[in-house]
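hey so u asked for the seq, here:
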Amino acid sequence: QLDVPTVILQNYFTNQGGFVLLLILPLLTMGLLTDERRKGTLELLLTSPIRSLELTLGKFFGALTFFAETLAEREGAGFLRYGPGGFYGPHRDRGIVPSWPGAERRRIAVVIFLNDGFGGGVLRLFGDAGARDIVPREGTLAAFPAATLHEVASVIDGTRDTVVDWFY
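ran it, structure tokens below
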């Protein structure tokens, strides 16, 4: 029997161009525009002789150029399912692992939560300012440096489904 949602997701996430264009680049574009607002330079840009659409497209193609130059490859999506009691202890996705040479090249880790409605299973990132919990919500994308220490807390009940990938 053909599982249509799985086939669609597999085709979508094995196509690097689609993944970057449809998920990552719009997020970067929004981030760049938010950054302009935070710096107080968005008003200056909006009063220049270009339209808002041109500004947005400029930011989008700037992000595309950045991605094409710096994160040209990715490892390929993996699907992870954690049942009750499932967890992944503190670790870094980037490192020297003789059995997995690609792990040393990883620069950005990406996690997409496919569902919610389960207990526990938070993604916990450890940094200089302490731990930060990312509560799984369906459709949320979390991207962070692959060298960041992180863990998946134990799932208390239900099933936690995610897509993970790493960019080089």
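Helices lie at 4-14, 16-39, 42-46, 52-70. The chain has a mean pLDDT of 80.
lmk if thats what u needed
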